[in-house]
Amino acid sequence: MNERQLAFFRRALKKWKQEIIYESKETLAHLQDGPIQEADLNDRASSETDWGLELRTRDRQRKLTSKIDSALRRIEEGEYGYCQVTGEPISLDRLKARPIATMTVEAQEAHERNEKISRDQ
To answer: Which of 19, 64, 90, 103 gives 107 a disulfide partner, CB atoms 3.0 to 4.6 angstroms apart?
Structure first.
């Protein structure tokens, strides 16, 4: 992968991380507005469910930021864009679709098949 391509992915990853951080700050601001004050029990339950979903989403995004940081580190160390299983280059199309990818499509599919077999046993 050439420097121009690496710069493209570095910018995309940093932008993605900034968006996640911004959304997290918005969620935190909403949480600090105070407890849910719905009078109707059904409305309260619905609001609490919405908050639960929002918090789970934020938790997933928190984990995603660590994957973004890992991808940025791989860029700096010259390891970005190479499969961690096979060592082969990951296609640019795959990286555009999932910039944090660590495996080629084939390696990912094999990993998922093995995971499924392990779960089924």
So the answer is: 103
| Distant-in-sequence, close-in-space partners of 105: CB < 8 Å, separation ≥ 6 | 91, 94
Q: pLDDT tens, 21-54?
A: 998 888 777 766 666 666 777 777 877 787 788 7
Tell me if the pTM is above 0.90. no
The whole-angstrom separation of Cα 109 and Cα 103 is: 9
Residue 14: which residues within 8 A CB-CB, separation 6 or more? 72
Of 28, 53, 86, 108, the residue nearest 100 (C-alpha): 108
